[in-house]
Amino acid sequence: MNPRKLFLTLTVGCLVGSPFLPQALASDDCYYRVANVSADDVLWMRSGPHKQYQIVGFIAYNGTEIQKTGQEFNGRYSQWMPVKYKDMAGWVNHRYLEEDCQLNKAIEESRYYTLKRGDTLYSISKRYGKTVKEIAKWNDLEAPYNLSVGQRLRVVPPICAYRVVNVASYDTLSIRAEPGVQSDRVGRIPFKGTDIQITGQELSIGKSRWVPIKYKALEGWVNRGYLEKEC
Q1: 136 and 70, same structural domain?
Q2: Residues 190 and 131 grouped into a single domain
Q3: pTM of the predicted structure, to 2 decimals
Q4: Which of 12, 136, 161, 175 has minimal CB crowding within 10 Å?
Q5: Are residues 222 and 184 in the same domain?
Q6: Which domain holds residue 81?
Q7: What is the domain-level CATH number for residue 128?
């Protein structure tokens, strides 16, 4: 099967002047896997939602653990989805993806351990190759670490959130619809804002870096220079 056949044609006219940048949305409940691609072919990842955009990577015909990172783009004949796969980010034709909710559940379950009789924080930390301090921190535990049978403990690090930095107390951090100060403002984050999630790939514009984020019910883009990791 020719890889070109993986993509349906969109009208070129709809591409002119459009940045087609992934919007900031919360991750889907499910991962995705490749579908409808033969074993001798691959699913191309592109820099934008059309087959004329540059190829930035590919996913094997049996690829799994594909994450949706933003809003889909509906073309005239096809639908494109911004995704992250391993360390790559780009757009793929949605026709060649299907939900894999069972995998998502299994991955989520693997992040926790349910205590059994005789377990200690030390034995659990050794089992998962972590330290007692790490397990305690991820589960908000303090010495003497009172544990109970059936208790669920996180055994992998939580996903880090971010907080606002370098913003004066009388100011706010603007959330933009698209990366860049010229884009419409869709919300603001207080100078002490926390629990901010980066939801997609960083984009460099001139000398500044922009990231798609989610803050409470707000979604959009902010300047990366005003965020600091908070784990």
Answers
A1: no
A2: no
A3: 0.43
A4: 12
A5: yes
A6: 3-103
A7: 3.10.350.10
